[in-house]
Amino acid sequence: MAKRATARDVAEQAGVSKWTVIRAFTPGASITESSRAKVMAVAEKLNYRPNLLARSLATNLTHQVAVLVDDFENPYKLSFLERLTLELQSEGLVAVLININEHFDHVHALLNADQRQLDAVIMCGTAFRTEMLQDVRLDGAAPMFVLARDSQIPGVPAINCDTTLAIKDLCRHLHEKGYRRPGFMAGPKTLSTALGRRRAFKAFWKAHGITEMPELAAHHYSAASGAEAVRRYLNEVSPAGRVDVLLCENDVLAFGAMDVIRSEFGLKVPADIAVAGFDNTLFAAAPAYDLTTYEQPVEAMVKAAVAMILGREPKKTVTMPGRLVVRGSA
């Protein structure tokens, strides 16, 4: 194999110091344009590229960010990860995607990220718990951020959608449409990532004189879990006592619920039971679902998180408004 060109090789041919070569490849470094141009011309001739590993040892920065995900069954995650990785890469950062599962939990992931000296950790899942993460917080460890979820972890900022405003907008629309027997389908219960959607939902309807609100429990954020939850509910409750509108904690649960409502029980959406979701995923607009939902401000949340990682903004919890998307399901 041909020997790989080094910064010293470029410096010798360009007639500059090694540190001038390093500055030429460092954004914002102090160097004249003529020196930069000379270095770049020789670098191109020698096919030289900076050694990022060596640079990380010198700067104590790896320009790598761990992204922890534990709910890959949720289709919302694909578009979300696309936006996140695009923003990281545009800033010269690389995402290290870590699949959290029964064999590799959040504790292992955080310890692993610390050993690899990653610059930051972004948690995009639902199953991490306050007490579990506090046990592995290390002095000097990479800063952690919770993205698109609430956080009750001291010192860990969350960048998320304004839950109270979102649910109020959804419920106000449903109330104006005349629905008076609301039900809520919740995903798996967690501690540090409690979404607060259930709480805001109950508060709205209670303020409007409605206190009986059935809660359907889904064990996972998946269409299969949404289907199972609504199937169990419809089998147990007589037609006269059923809800007239079901708000699901996210779109994928709503997809599963709608499939069962129509295909297994022969009911119509929204004539018999209206359904609404949350996230405005790709399939929400498909004619098969035509789902009323709420869109999170993904791009703004991602930009805010990356700005905090880069030190351009103070590390603090931020909530942002999204938008209600009304379609035919409710």
Automatic annotation (TrEMBL):
Signal peptide range in chain numbering: none
PROSITE patterns: HTH_LACI_2
Family annotation (InterPro entries): HTH_LacI, LacI/GalR-like_sensor, Lambda_DNA-bd_dom_sf, Peripla_BP_I
SMART domains, alphabetized: HTH_LACI (SM00354)
GO molecular function: DNA-binding transcription factor activity; transcription cis-regulatory region binding
Keyword annotations of the record: DNA-binding, Transcription, Transcription regulation
Record domain HTH lacI-type: where: 5-59
PANTHER family: HTH-TYPE TRANSCRIPTIONAL REGULATOR GALS, LACI-RELATED TRANSCRIPTIONAL REPRESSOR
Protein name: LacI family DNA-binding transcriptional regulator
Organism per entry: Mesorhizobium tamadayense
